[in-house]
Specification:
The chain has 240 residues and is an alpha+beta fold. The protein is built from 3 helices and 11 strands, in the order H-H-E-E-E-E-E-E-E-E-E-E-E-H. A hairpin with a 5-residue loop joins strand 2 and strand 3.
Length: 240
């Protein structure tokens, strides 16, 4: 009984010894491995060297994100840009026309009965052209269907030819009928009037005639019908 017990104890003791040897060997190997693996890391941490921060990605800009914060959505414009306004070159003033003869095509003629002198009518000719024109001589007037033109009052002849600049007017008066109450003969009422113009040569009419309107009731004329020369002023025309 004691011999068997002694053997069991020897066997247990041997097993414990072997286990202790194995544990010691493992511990020695593990310690060496740890020292080798962790040595450099611990040394770097203890040396105080700065650790570089990890780089960070830049935040996207408003222009790149297209959120409209910078006014640029990154999209193509929907409308084409307007073309610059073109300033027109200043126009040159129109060149005045060359002076010529006043006639129906470049003037406007009106006829108005006068209260004073009685039985008189005033002709007004206005230059509507772009250049000066000349009123030569006196008006050749034709009332209704008359076959002849009335004579001129010679004493009314001006010292110079009447010149009308654009917009200016010249005048002549017409003695329609006798003013003394007598019957000059061949009187009639005229409802239409044509005025003809003379040229520098005073031989016949030039250009087109004018057709100024008469009062609706017409005007009375007789054989005493006369006209004045063209005048530069209205006062000169109505003084005869």
């Amino acid at each position: 009984m004691s011999v068997r017990t002694s053997r069991v104890r020897l066997a247990v003791a041997a097993s414990v010894a072997l286990a202790a040897l194995s544990l010691t060997a493992c511990t020695d190997n593990d310690s060496g491995d740890i020292a080798t693996a962790t040595g450099p890391t611990l040394k770097a941490a203890s040396s105080g060297a700065p650790t570089a921060p990890a780089p960070t990605a830049p935040a996207p800009s408003a222009a790149a994100s297209g959120d409209g914060a910078s006014g640029d959505t990154g999209k193509a414009p929907t409308t084409a840009p307007k073309a610059p306004t073109r300033i027109p070159a200043p126009s040159k003033p129109a060149k005045p026309a060359e002076p010529g003869t006043c006639e129906g095509g470049n003037t406007k003629t009106t006829a108005a009965p006068l209260n004073r002198p009685v039985n008189h009518m005033l002709l007004t000719v206005t230059n509507t052209g772009t250049g000066a024109c000349f009123l030569y001589g006196y008006p050749a007037v034709r009332f209704g269907e008359a076959q002849a033109v009335p004579p001129v009052i010679e004493d009314s002849k001006p010292q110079a030819v009447v010149t009308l600049q654009p917009g200016e007017s010249g005048y002549a008066s017409i003695n329609l009928s006798s003013t003394d109450g007598g019957n000059a003969g061949h009187g009639y009422t005229a409802t239409s009037l044509t005025v003809y113009f003379s040229g520098p040569a005073m031989s016949g009419s030039v250009g087109t005639g004018a057709h100024p309107a008469l009062p609706a009731k017409g005007v009375y004329v007789d054989d005493s019908l006369k006209v004045t020369y063209w005048q530069q002023s209205m006062d000169d025309a109505t003084s005869w």
